[in-house]
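Record 1 of the preview.
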Amino acid sequence: MRSALLFGAALALILLIPTQVTSAQDALPWETLEELCGTNYSSYEPALELYGPMQFLEIPDVVIAYYRLGNASSELPPVVLVVGFSNTMKDWPLTILSDLAEDREVIIFDNRGQGSSRDTSPDVPLSILSMANDTKNFVEALDLARPPHLLGWSMGGMITLKAAAMFADSFDRFAVFSGGPGSLRSQLPSLEILEKFLLEDTMTEVYRLGTLFPLNTTSGVEAACKYAEEMQYTPADTIRKLATRRQLEALIEYYFSDTTLDALASTQQHILVVGGLWDPVVPAINQKLVGQVLPSAWMAIFEDGAHGAFMQHWDTVRELLKVFLHREESEVLRG
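->
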């Protein structure tokens, strides 16, 4: 019954909202990682020393699993990273974690019911708002010395935008990687990707990489293979199907609501938005919507980027983050 309702809601969305016409998946000539990258990346030892011990913190409705990395004594605000749809905190590339942790503390965690976090109220409906509220409650329970910056990728970027709109006092600045504000004014993923999400079709590794990086370019293939290799060093984690299904329901609901866009329009939050012009999952027009309602937002849309544009262009994004996170408030608002 739930699957039928979900499918019906998605069909209604398709009728109401335009979908991405182009796809990063057009005519891929590779079927396996070995064909794409020259190796299948099968003999790597996880870099467990970077993470340290996993910790747990109970907040309303969920027990959050998390890691604290980097320099906890830094005077700079910590960075809290919010992961995306069907992902766990182990999906953050090690290079990015290491770079961010050079001069400050970095905190990563699993969303409610996913990975090692436990949903203690599974009958409570899941939404982008409830996950943003979880993030706020988690940060407040950590009792940090100062409000942290919040950085989110994909669905995590949507959670970050919702937090900026609804719970801004709990955070300092916000960075959104390939996320969007929802609403009927947004653009949906390509029909092909929607079908795979809705029907729980298993994506091959090469197909998934093709959503993150443009595999029709040399730089995209190089970035995809670098990411695939780096992910071999991350410890294995559990993707929970029920949590993934509930997240998908939350995403569909998010596209029916204008509340995030409307709330952002009346705020003066410091927000950086990064995206890729060839993103088939959260098309770049969704990031541009943020700039339309919040002119003070900083924005970087990479012409040769897809859903992992911030990873493909990490050297540039890292320097942009340094400027954005360190600037005085008046300079951030000027952009």
